[in-house]
Amino acid sequence: MAYSELFKNYSDIRNFMRRFYVYGFEKRQDFTAKSSRSYDDNRRRLDSWLEDYMSFKSDADGRAYRISFDSSSISHNPLYKSWKAKSFTSMDITLHFYLLDILADGKAYSAAELLELLCGRYFNCFDNQLRQPDESTVRNKLNEYTALGMLRLVKQGRRNLYCLAQDEVNWRSWQLACAFFSEAAPLGEAGSYLLDKFAEDCEAFAFKHHFILYTMDSKLLYELLEAMNSRQSVTLYRCDKDGTAICLPLENLLQHEDRTAVSFELQLCCAKAAVQPSGPYRKH
Questions:
Q1: Are 110 and 157 in contact (CB under 8 A)?
Q2: DSSP state of 83
Q3: Distance CA 14, CA 220 (A)
Q4: What pTM, to 2 d.p., does this model score?
Q5: Spatial separation of the C-alpha atoms in residues 102 and 121, rounded to whole Å
Q6: Percentage of the chain modeled with pLDDT above 90
Q7: What CA–CA distance (Å, rounded) separates 181 from 213?
Q8: Does residue 149 come out as left (phi exceeding 0), alpha (psi in the -120 to 50 range) or beta?
Q9: Radius of gyration of the chain (CA)
Q10: How far is 267 from 233, CA to CA, in rounded Å?
Q11: To 10 degrees, what angle do helices 90-103 and 111-121 make?
Q12: Residue 91's beta-bridge partner residues?
């Protein structure tokens, strides 16, 4: 299979980034949990995203790579690039552009009507007759975009119609706030995605000591915050020992810029105890 910059499982990328960034100067033979092919692909992905921040040293045993930054010389967290390289299917990207193009007229359509327009305007226009989606695939994509806030669901009797959500936010007035949030707050990836909407770059902030390690655990923090919001328990898997613990996340504790801890309530058979991890929460 040809090498691709895109990936499916972020946990693999996170583990490689952590070892190159936190520990540094590790060689291929140091990564015993994965195959050599996996090491080569993930190292090449990181080198593509972080070309200006990857370095290596060579000796008789081969090259040892590391990721390093001078925090005073960067205005944007470069590790955010890893969140913007997740793979997608050809149908995902095709429906993304075709559906938004149809809905650009401001009208509301049902899933069946959109499927008919997709086939008539786009899929049937190609000589090779591109593989057409079924109605359930279109409906799933519409519901996904509705949940993301990109589309709005309109009830018309028993029919569900979809139209573009109105966006009246003056993004330009929020650019400075997004630039600061993306570098100073947990889940700053959200600010980074919003900054991508602007044609010009915002380099208003610089940090003498910029701890960006938490970036790699943002997905885990997001899942914990969702569990807090819905009052659901989570299962913690120990990295250093066998066994699991079912816990109820209670509070996100910002102990330091480079440290995010979450307090938990352990749900044991007969007793409950409050515990607080000493470092970033990790799940493997």
A1: no
A2: G
A3: 11
A4: 0.67
A5: 9
A6: 17
A7: 16
A8: left
A9: 23
A10: 8
A11: 100
A12: none
Separation CA 195–CA 183 (nearest Å):
12
Report the alpha-carbon distance of residue 38 to residue 33 in Å, rounded.
10
What is the spatial order of strands in the sheet that 272-275 belongs to? 234-237, 244-256, 259-267, 272-275
Residue 42's closest CA among 70, 18, 59, 22? 18
User: What is the Cα–Cα distance from 138 to 114, expressed in whole angstroms?
Assistant: 8
C-alpha distances (whole Å) from 109 to each of 99, 132, 156, 165, 282 are 10, 18, 10, 13, 43
Q: What is the pLDDT of residue 253?
A: 55
CB 17 within 8 A of CB 82: yes
**Mean pLDDT comparison of 48-52, 188-192, 218-222, highest-scoring range:** 188-192
Task: Report the DSSP beta bridge partners of residue 63.
Answer: 58
- Asked if 256 and 278 count as a contact pair (C-beta separation under 8 A), the reply is no
Please state, in angstroms and rounded to a whole number, the distance separating the CA atoms of residues 78 and 72. 13
> For residue 49, which of 31, 36, 29, 67 has the smallest C-alpha distance?
67
Mean pLDDT to the nearest integer, 235-240: 70
Looking at residue 223, its pLDDT comes to: 84
Tokens of 91: 């149908």
Residue keyed to tokens 């900054």:
195
- Asked if pLDDT for residue 81 goes beyond 70, the answer is yes
**195 close to 222: Cβ distance less than 8 angstroms:** no
Q: What are the tens digits of pLDDT across the range 148-191?
A: 889 999 998 889 999 999 877 787 788 899 999 988 888 888 88
Measured CA to CA, the distance from residue 228 to residue 20 in angstroms comes to 32
For the chain, strand residue ranges (E) read: 54-59, 62-67, 151-156, 159-164, 234-237, 244-256, 259-267, 272-275
